[in-house]
């Protein structure tokens, strides 16, 4: 369905010698509202992720983590996201 719509759009532009498609502001707002409504029925709004504004500080120089459960330090299978138990390197 979407593929056909895109094909029709490209053909429409080609026949008319056009090279640009731009949404109107009301259409942009309506689409954004629709996407947020659909997303609200999923777990996305509850995710602690970069696309919702959460950022993680990652240091490429430090790969050692301290396990809160065992108190051990190592580089095998680090947990993501790093917790407050990340060791200072």
Characterization of this structure:
The structure is a single chain. The protein has 2 domains: 54 residues, no CATH class; 32 residues, no CATH class. It is mainly alpha-helical. Helices cover 34% and strands 4% of the residues. The protein starts with a helix and ends in a 15-residue tail after the last strand. The longest helix has 15 residues. It has 2 helices and 2 strands. It has a two-stranded antiparallel sheet with strand order 1-2.
Summarize the structure.
34% of the residues lie in helices and 4% in strands. The protein has 89 residues and is mainly alpha-helical.
Supply the number of structural domains: 2
- Bulk shape: elongated
Based on DSSP secondary structure assignment, what is the total number of beta strands?
2
Radius of gyration: 23 Å
Mean pLDDT: 74
Q: What quaternary form is this?
A: single chain
Structural class: mainly alpha
pLDDT < 50 stretches: 65-77
- Share in helix: 25-40%
Largest β sheet strand count, sense and barrel closure: 2 strands, antiparallel
Task: Give me the secondary-structure topology.
Elements: H1 2-16, H2 25-39, E1 65-66, E2 73-74
Characteristic terms for this protein:
89 residues; single chain; mainly alpha; 34% helix
